[in-house]
UniProtKB/TrEMBL annotation:
It comes from Dinothrombium tinctorium. This is E3 ubiquitin-protein ligase NRDP1-like protein. The keyword Metal-binding applies. Residues 58-96 form the RING-type domain. Keywords: Metal-binding, Zinc, Zinc-finger. One of its GO terms (molecular function) is zinc ion binding. The lineage of its organism: Eukaryota, Metazoa, Ecdysozoa, Arthropoda, Chelicerata. GO terms for biological process: regulation of canonical NF-kappaB signal transduction.
Length: 158
């Protein structure tokens, strides 16, 4: 579940998210670190981004939206970016209005993202695939260029 710390979220019939204040102090005090797969996509990975780079960029990480979320003041952010931000501040990073609700992004944003073509995560290992963004996760699970996991064996001293 995503959202502002200390809030409980429920999907309504319109798929908006209603917020109700809750006394969850531990959530707002926890510090979360995200890997690069948790923030926006690097713009240079897209082959057809064109003039839409600024329109589809998160104002926090400056990457192309990953799991976009809209605030009550209608700004759009990556889900993990706004969640991390909201652990420190309950105001919008763009206009400083109080954050009270997180919603799905406008369908236009989703449609634009779904039409983007992105290079595989494993391009540096030789993969030349260019995939529609919604299919990227499926591709990287079975990509033949995915590095094999390596294990470090440590012998105990006796």
């Amino acid at each position: 579940m995503f959202g502002l710390p200390g809030y409980i979220y429920k999907y309504s019939a319109r798929e908006n998210m209603d917020t109700t204040r809750d006394n969850i102090e531990s959530t707002s005090k926890s510090s979360t670190k995200f890997s690069c797969s948790d923030v926006g996509y690097e713009p240079n990975r897209f082959v057809n981004l064109g003039d839409f780079s600024e329109d589809l960029s998160c104002p926090i990480c400056f990457g192309i939206f990953r799991q976009p979320i809209t605030t009550n003041c209608r700004h759009v952010f990556c889900k993990n970016c706004i969640n991390t931000w909201s652990m420190k501040s309950l105001t919008c990073p763009v206009d400083r209005r109080r954050l009270t609700k997180l919603c799905k992004p406008p369908i236009l944003i989703e449609n634009m993202l779904n039409k983007l073509l992105i290079k595989c995560d494993y391009e540096q290992f030789g993969c030349e695939e260019i995939i529609e963004l919604p299919l990227l996760e499926q591709h990287i699970k079975c990509c033949h260029f995915k590095p094999k996991e390596t294990y470090l064996l440590v012998q105990s001293c006796k």
